[in-house]
Write a structure and sequence with these properties.
A: mainly beta; 4-stranded antiparallel β-sheet; 12 strands; 54% strand; B: 4-stranded antiparallel β-sheet; 11 strands; 0% helix; globular
């Protein structure tokens, strides 16, 4: 079975500083991995996806993630946080029948 | 743009009532999904359907059933609502795996259900 573990339930950063949201995965085969974002009272939006192409994946709004097989990690980063980045972020792994298994989420708080 | 709509944003029901949550997508997607979202638990898959009249149990199907009579519509049914089913319910859809963008699920805005 596939699973993901988001290592932090909350991350706080100051505007203009780097963002790191950590995710480890477990999969019995080569995984497809995703990051979704959910802004307050908004729907879920796909940030980026890894499907066995380049290990460094670029997404929307300046986010990127690096797939590291040796570390079973797929951490999400952004060089400089913006106030509008405050949201909940979910690391996701694809399962059977193209279903998705979500992590428990990381709430990103951005202070001025 | 893909559009996934859900019949209600907020719903309040009483224990024991039968509850229907409706989801409609307008992009001719084959696959549709129902999740519930609870704080600290992320999203958990309740049921999914990969074609009309087809359904599969997800990770937490107990207390729920689904119906897919038409391709664009996927209904979640709570046969006898209980207070532990108070949650945010999210519907999603996506193209069949044979298409080029088969991995992306598109989500609706959610229905916040409160069972009293």
């Amino acid at each position: 079975a596939q699973s993901v573990t988001q290592l932090d339930s909350h991350v706080s950063v100051s505007e203009g500083t780097p963002v790191l949201l950590r995710c480890n995965y477990s999969s019995s085969y080569s995984p497809s991995l995703f990051w979704y974002v959910q802004h307050p009272n908004k729907g879920l939006q796909l940030l980026l996806k890894y499907t066995s192409a380049a290990t460094l994946v670029k997404g929307i709004n300046g986010f990127e993630a690096e797939f590291k097989k040796s570390e079973t990690s797929f951490h999400l980063t952004k060089p400089s946080a913006h106030m509008s980045d405050a949201a909940e972020y979910f690391c996701v792994v694809r399962g059977g029948y193209s279903t998705l298994t979500f992590g428990k989420g990381t709430m990103l708080l951005v202070s001025p | 743009d893909v559009k996934v709509t859900q019949s209600s944003r907020y719903l309040v029901k009483r224990t024991g009532e039968k509850v229907f949550l409706e989801c409609v997508q307008d992009m001719d997607h084959e696959n549709m999904f129902w999740y519930r979202q609870d704080p600290g638990l992320g999203l958990r898959l309740i049921y999914f359907s990969y074609d009309v009249k087809m359904k599969e149990k997800g990770d937490i199907p107990e207390g729920y059933s689904v119906s897919r009579e038409k391709k664009e519509r996927f209904s979640l049914i709570l046969e006898s609502a209980s207070t532990n089913q108070t949650s945010m319910y999210l519907c999603a859809s996506k193209l069949d795996p044979t298409s080029g963008r088969f991995h992306e699920q598109f989500f609706g805005p959610g229905t916040r259900l409160t069972v009293l």
